[in-house]
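Sequence in, structure out. First:
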Amino acid sequence: MAVDIKNLNHNQLNELISKAQARQNELRKEKVGKLREKIHAMIKAEGYTFEDIFGGARKARRSTGSVPPKYRNPANPEQTWSGRGKRPRWFNDALKAGKKEKDLLI
């Protein structure tokens, strides 16, 4: 199928490109599915399971957990900050008011 792209306008070209990309994705998914079936068949024919070959579970991510607070708002002691991530507004306001980081430590 030959398409004369010189006679297409901008919108028609964009539509053709998006359809071609969608079809390309469909073909890729089909190919991946067939390959996956082949691999599973080969593994089964040898008497193994997928987990025997590639491992049963993926490595678990290390949990960072919660970090104890390092700084406390002197105006409102319920507001704390661990020192990680973006500085809270109350922390920046206290610094602008002349306080130092060490003054806000718990």
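Second:
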Amino acid sequence: MAVLELINISKHFGAIQAVSDVSLSIQAGEVVGLMGDNGAGKSTLVKMIAGNFRPSHGSMRMDGTELNLHKPVEARQHGIEIVYQDLALCNNLTAAANVFLGRELRRGFGPFRILDYATMYRRAGQIFAELKSETRPRDLVKQMSGGQRQAVAIARTRLSEAKIVLMDEPTAAISVRQIAEVLNLIRHLRDQGIAVVLISHRMPDVFDVADRVIVMRRGRKVADKRIAASSPEEVTGLITGAIEQVV
């Protein structure tokens, strides 16, 4: 059974049709690359999955059950996490503080509850170890590389036992070494049975780590293929319109 299924999902903003009749399914432990030019509808589609937008038409199912999301917190409660391109990290805080931001652990009773830093540092360290990341819980985010910052953002998704992680351009504007680190983080999520949707303009990254590639153009899905059955040249043609559709 698919962990997530979209059935004829559409979204319009007044007269603007951002997404039109998109159907897709994602399995547990699968990495799916979502590609398309700017304005293709990728971000709108992902924001519907994340609970930011409600679909104008169509339906979503998770583990076979109808999914009606009104806000992002409801998506998180169902195991859907999103890592935005800007990561939304606080540079003046430690890695552990960012991992638990808004979900801080406390100890004590009644009005005498204080932040449980020791447990948060320990749990953050365990998550970084699970992700095979060199990031340390007490390091300040402002001193981190792009790859380490991605590790912190991804570690946050592990607190809620995510079933699916949506990643928006995670390898944009970072070095080759840091790109390799981020792709390894994605592989570790996959190996733990978590589905990953990788939104990217970087063809090498998608073909390196994804199991499938979905291509969107002008709000419609024009391809959904196994990576082994496609090629960068074909995907480029689908993105630009040189190839119409292979769905």
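Remark: The first strand starts at residue 4 and ends at 13.
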